[in-house]
Structures are given as structure tokens and as C-alpha cells.
Backbone:
């Protein structure tokens, strides 16, 4: 069951532990590691190309917003 | 007393109070709609006027040992559950403006006006007509201070996220199969 406003992520396919995934992970990392069982999940960049391109744009947009916010504070 | 407006900005007092509040509600609604647009644009593909389309997925592969054989498995996770959802709501608004009463139409209600047995008809209260006035040297202004914070997910989006758990594709075996070397 999804909890309101929990960090983005997914359940580990092996142990069910929730793996937190960041935009940074999706943009630059080659894999994410389950903290519960140490399973290494390799990002299939070829198959996920369209989705990851959107993630990259979202990350750039959020970084721009953060830069403006810091500048204006 | 003349009912004609003294100027184009003369309104009833209730309208002058209500218009900025209505703008706040409209702004909150616009932010919510924008949030939905972002969710649709990012997390769905092949959408049109009638359908949201299909969920986008991010695929991961991992090694899995079955009967002593290491197999490469694939799991597809909905992008919707992997991105932060930028939903905001106003938590506090402070409005500060000056009004100048232009005229008052109608007199005060009669002493027995609120006696429902004698006067069952609605009481007509005076109408106060006013304009936004200038605070100092500047023209009429409304000072607005808004506080926003991350909002709880709307119920519909929460249910959609729950569906993403069901939509997570179960691990499927990829073509390659390696002999176990561990």
C-alpha cells in the first residue's frame, strides 16, 4: 500500500524492502542497491530511454527552481 | 440615493472582500490542474483527449539464482512511483488592502425587521459601495503574502500510486542465462 508522500522508490523484487530512488540515481547511476538484501538492480537504459530522458529534463527543471529559490532567499 | 456606480471600480463591499479570496481559490485550483498536467506528461504516454494513455516504465535487471542457475531477470517499475510529485497547496494567505466607502444605499433596517412573525420577508440591509483605495502615494494596492507547503496527495493520485504497485511488472526472465559462478 502506498503511503502518502513517501519518498519515490520501489519494492525490492527479491525481499520486498522499499528501495528509495532519487532523480540523481535515475539520471546518472548505473544501478540501485537494495538496503535490505543488497540486490543490485541495473538500470536498463536502453529499454527505459524515453522515460529517463523525461527524468533528466525534470531534474534540470528542479535544479533550476532550486537555484532561483536560493538566489531569492 | 443614486444607485449608479461612482466609477468602474466601485463595488459592493462583499465583492471587494470576496474577489481576492476568489482569486486565491482559482490560484489553488490552477496549481492543482498544473500538477495533474505534470503527472500526465511525465508518467503516461500515448495519451489523447479521452485517455490518459499507458504508464511509462523504467526497467531494471538483476541476477537471480534458480535451481543453481544464475538468470538475468527484468522488472519494470512505473515512472510515476519513481519521481517526486510536485504538489503544493496554500497553507496561509494574508491580504491587506484599503477601502474607501463611496456611498451607502438604503437605510438601516426597522427595529422590528428581524421579528420573523411580523416580517417574514427577508430584511433588506443597506448596501455599502466602496472602492479599493490607495494606501499611500501609490495607487490602489493589495498586499498579498502567501505561504505554500507540500500538500497531501489527493485521494485519486494516492489510489493511482497504489495501482502502480499492481502495475509493477513481475520479474521476467531475459534471454540470456548464465551458469552460476558464485
Residues:
Amino acid at each position: 500500500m502506498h503511503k502518502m508522500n513517501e519518498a519515490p522508490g520501489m519494492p525490492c523484487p527479491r525481499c520486498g524492502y522499499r528501495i528509495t530512488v532519487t532523480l540523481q540515481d535515475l539520471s546518472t547511476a548505473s544501478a540501485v542497491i537494495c538496503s535490505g538484501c543488497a540486490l543490485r538492480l541495473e538500470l536498463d537504459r536502453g529499454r527505459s530511454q524515453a522515460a529517463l530522458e523525461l527524468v533528466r529534463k525534470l531534474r534540470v527543471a528542479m535544479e533550476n527552481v532550486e537555484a532561483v529559490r536560493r538566489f531569492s532567499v | 440615493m443614486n444607485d449608479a456606480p461612482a466609477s468602474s471600480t466601485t463595488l459592493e463591499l462583499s465583492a471587494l472582500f470576496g474577489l481576492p479570496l476568489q482569486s486565491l481559490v482559482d490560484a489553488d485550483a490552477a496549481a492543482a490542474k498544473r500538477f495533474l498536467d505534470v503527472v500526465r506528461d511525465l508518467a503516461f504516454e500515448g495519451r489523447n483527449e479521452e485517455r490518459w494513455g499507458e504508464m511509462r516504465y523504467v526497467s531494471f535487471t538483476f541476477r537471480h539464482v534458480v535451481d543453481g542457475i544464475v538468470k538475468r531477470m527484468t522488472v519494470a517499475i512505473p515512472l510515476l512511483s519513481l519521481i517526486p510529485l510536485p504538489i503544493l497547496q496554500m497553507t496561509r494567505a494574508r491580504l491587506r488592502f484599503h477601502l474607501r466607502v463611496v456611498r451607502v444605499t438604503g437605510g438601516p433596517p426597522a427595529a422590528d425587521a428581524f421579528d420573523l412573525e411580523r416580517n417574514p420577508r427577508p430584511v433588506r440591509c443597506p448596501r455599502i459601495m466602496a472602492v479599493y483605495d490607495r494606501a499611500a502615494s501609490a495607487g490602489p494596492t493589495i498586499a498579498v503574502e502567501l505561504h505554500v507547503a507540500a500538500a497531501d496527495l489527493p485521494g485519486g493520485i494516492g489510489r493511482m500510486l497504489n495501482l502502480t504497485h499492481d502495475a509493477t511488472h513481475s520479474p521476467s526472465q531475459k534471454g540470456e542465462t548464465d551458469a552460476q559462478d558464485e
User: Anything to note?
Assistant: Helices of chain B lie at 13-43, 155-167. Chain B is about 25% helix and 40% strand. The longest strand of chain B covers residues 88-105. Chain B touches chain A through 33 residues (CB under 8 Å).
